[in-house]
Amino acid sequence: MSLSLPFRTAAILAGTALLLAGCAAAPEASDDPTAGASDFCARMVTNSGGLEDRSFNQSSWAGMQQAAADFDIDAQVLVSTGETDLGPNVEQAAASGCDFVLTVGYELATATEEQANANPDVDFAIVDETVVGDNIKPIVFDTAQAAYLAGYLAAGVTKTGVVATFGGGNQPPVTLFMDGFADGVSKYNEVHGTAVTTLGWDKAKQDGSFTGDFEDVNKGKALTASLIDQGADIILPVAGQVGEGAAAAALDAGNVSVIWVDNDGYDTLPAEYRPLLLTSVLKNTGDAVVESVKASMDGTFDNTPFVGTLDNGGVDIAPFHDLATSVPAELSTELDGLRADITSGAVEVTSPSTPK
Fold first, then answer.
1. Contact by Cβ (8 Å): 320, 279
2. Mean pLDDT for each 10-residue chunk of the chain (356 residues)?
3. Alpha-carbon span 261 to 284, nearest angstrom
4. Are 278 and 153 in contact (CB under 8 A)?
5. How far apart are CA 90 and CA 79, in angstroms?
6. Residue 229: CB partners within 8 Å, gap ≥ 6?
7. All domains in the chain, ordered by first residue
8. CA 131 from centre of chain
């Protein structure tokens, strides 16, 4: 059963911290999660994209920092800067003596499973990946639902009749965004009798444009430039830091907008890109992390996946910010109705990568 979380955008707090010494065992179950807080500690391990990735590492860490502030606990992060860091960092987090370990992304799936099996008294949670284990809670998001809204929006705003998306790698958490975006464009075409084209992704073939990594900004800039050359004036990069290259290419081109993912790019990207941001496809990672830490503290932690949806506030799209005047009131009203239809089940958003 999914947790129902209030939708709020966690403040993004940058910076890393060193792993500290081990701590005592988890507190006994209590209605007050702060009871015994001084004896509780938590660790997070990033994937190879690093902490300040303007994506899910950064959002997850914001959640850990919020939990530390809310519950007066020690929360520290181990930053992975390459593949060779992944396994050792999870092992170090598990060996710290802490009660809760959060890992982020598919790269850490194997290490998370191994360390959870080796440390059955430690609660593990993993963001954006499903790993099965008695003491592992997947934190996943049906981003296709929110990306569907973003695709519908893009199709309603484009001036060229061409929009585009690309990913860092052909993996379910990435292609889930791309499926929803493409279907949202198709829905707009169906409703309005238009023929907006989506470049970069073929849902039927589950194949499209990828940079092959999530760190090389120059790859994102080059790929986006090629999509702009083909007429795209709205770009959805699903590629972590690589997406900043898309924003750079859009800025160079002029009259091109970007849709960010994971967190509100208006808050996390350099200010020079704010005028380009049409919206962002949001994952409310921070609140899900806070709730998982709280459950670990009060003894209610379980391995039931949290699946973020439009209905429980786990996903949505961000405000239009500086580009609000480019979104007609009629289109905004349509988006509100579409959100309600997805929530009620009247419109079903499907993808081979939909989390269960």
1. yes
2. 39 35 32 56 90 83 95 95 92 96 94 98 96 97 98 98 97 96 98 98 97 93 98 96 96 97 93 97 94 96 97 97 98 98 97 93
3. 11
4. yes
5. 10
6. none
7. 37-141+285-308 (3.40.50.2300), 143-283+315-344 (3.40.50.2300)
8. 17
